[in-house]
Automatic annotation (TrEMBL):
Its EC number is 2.7.7.7. Belongs to the DNA polymerase type-Y family. This is DNA polymerase IV. Its cofactor is Mg(2+). The gene is dinB. Transmembrane segments: none annotated. It comes from Chitinophaga tropicalis. Pfam families: IMS (PF00817), IMS_C (PF11799), IMS_HHH_1 (PF21999). InterPro entries: DNA/RNA_pol_sf, DNA_pol_Y-fam_lit_finger_sf, DNA_pol_Y-fam_little_finger, DNA_polymerase-Y, DNApol_IV, IMS_HHH_1, Rev_trsase/Diguanyl_cyclase, UmuC. It is an enzyme of class 2 (transferase). Binds 2 magnesium ions per subunit. The record marks F18 as: Substrate discrimination. Monomer. Residues 9-188 form the UmuC domain. GO terms for molecular function: damaged DNA binding; DNA-directed DNA polymerase activity; magnesium ion binding.
Length: 404
């Protein structure tokens, strides 16, 4: 059983982040149905304004469908590099003030302010930080302040747009009680439908269902939902470290200057750790390539990029870094790839350039990799040991090796 601790946790959320950035840079867009995403007929919506949501539009919807729902909507392609830069600016402001914070996504943050009431008053301090962020970035941001992460996130959602809310210790259950079950984090349409079929429509009713019965209905997820419905959450604020990374490297059996082989290895390694990113629901904001020559001299080069977890975007950056770094006169002993500056997030950050087909392709690829292993589906360029004859396959996605 989770015990409720008297903590002080703030949750910050940049309101309609991509849309807000576009409206900040073009005042004529304010108050209008605005869609940010792919501008082609096969593109998808990465974000939409509150005005557009009134027409039933939501993120990840095909742009063509969105424009049928709201033909007079304004479409902007979006600028992931600009959004990533602003996300980092907000992170720096928070890092300069908060004693402990977690960057949970490109536009969300948790701050642990436990104990600050003795000195400043957590609500006053948090409200002043919000004002500073808005003053420095000219972007709207909302926050919720409560005794745990879950309640603070729900409070933020209730405070939007561009608001703030405090839920006092001991009032968590009464705050949640009248809300529909969908208001709880991680309760999707399917789970909500299961609960409603059993007569559970509000969080109050959910909190009164015996925990053993919820477990029978929903498995372990039922236990988690019971705790949430009762306002209980002891998950910690995890300190944010830019150094956190995912990496891989390969020392060759034979030192080489074979460019086809090294390119194939870059593809293999990039796809491997990009898949790990997506598995962990993370995005990277920095790519590093490492080369060790036959004389053991080791060189690295890194590049800050718009947050992404897409193979085709990351591979382009990896190859660009490799060509800037590589000295063609020397044999190579080792190459490595590292993704750092990680934040929680999903494929949405890449929707500006992706078509529906591209998104479906990534989903299909990851489903196969989840089932059989990441190495069973790779780009058409295979890795072949130095010294062996190269066979360059046609571009595209091919199984490697064959799945029996």
């Amino acid at each position: 059983m989770i015990s409720l601790q008297h903590r002080s946790i703030a949750h910050f959320d940049l309101d309609c982040f991509f849309v807000s950035v576009e409206c900040r840079d073009d005042n004529s867009l304010k108050g209008k149905p605005l869609l940010v995403g792919g501008i082609s007929d096969r593109g998808v919506v990465a974000a939409c304004s509150y005005e557009a949501r009134r027409y039933g539009i939501h993120s990840a919807m095909p742009m063509k469908t969105a424009l049928k729902l709201c033909p007079h909507a304004i479409v902007r392609k979006g600028d992931p590099e600009k959004y990533s830069k602003l996300s980092r600016e907000v992170t720096e402001i928070i890092a300069n003030h908060a004693p402990l914070y977690e960057k949970s996504s490109i536009d969300e943050f948790y701050l642990d302010l436990t104990g600050m009431d003795k000195f400043f008053g957590s609500m006053k301090w948090t409200a002043e930080l919000r004002q500073e962020i808005m003053r420095e970035t000219q972007l709207p941001i909302s926050f919720g302040l409560a005794s745990n992460k879950m309640i603070s996130k729900v409070a933020t959602n209730e405070a939007k747009p561009n608001g703030q809310m405090e839920i006092f210790f001991g009032e968590e259950k009464s705050f949640l009680a009248p809300m529909p079950v969908e208001k709880l984090p991680m309760v999707g349409k399917e789970t909500a439908a299961q609960l409603r079929r059993r007569g559970v429509e509000t969080i109050r009713t959910l909190s009164e269902v015996p925990i053993t019965l919820l477990e029978a209905w929903l498995g372990k997820n039922g236990i988690s939902l019971w705790n949430k419905a009762n306002g209980l959450d002891d998950s910690p604020v995890i300190p944010y470290h830019e150094q956190k990374s995912i990496s891989t490297e390969n020392t060759f059996h034979t030192d080489t200057i074979d460019m086809k082989f090294m390119h194939a290895e870059l593809v293999r390694m990039t796809e491997k750790i990009a898949f790990e990113l997506r598995q962990q629901n993370k995005l990277t904001g920095c790519v590093t390539v490492k080369i060790r020559y036959s004389d053991f001299e080791t060189v690295t080069k890194q590049m800050t990029i718009p947050y992404s977890s897409s193979d085709h975007i990351l591979l382009e950056k990896v190859k660009e870094l490799f060509h800037k770094l590589y000295d063609r006169r020397l044999l190579v002993r080792l190459i490595g790839v590292r993704f750092s500056h990680l934040v929680h997030g999903n494929h949405q950050i890449s929707l500006f350039d992706d078509t529906q087909e591209m998104i479906s392709l990534y989903q299909a690829i990851d489903n196969i990799k989840n089932r059989f292993g990441w190495q069973y589906l790779m780009k058409g360029t295979n890795t072949i040991p130095p010294g062996k004859k190269h066979e360059v396959k046609a571009p595209g996605i091919v199984p490697y090796p064959k799945v029996r």
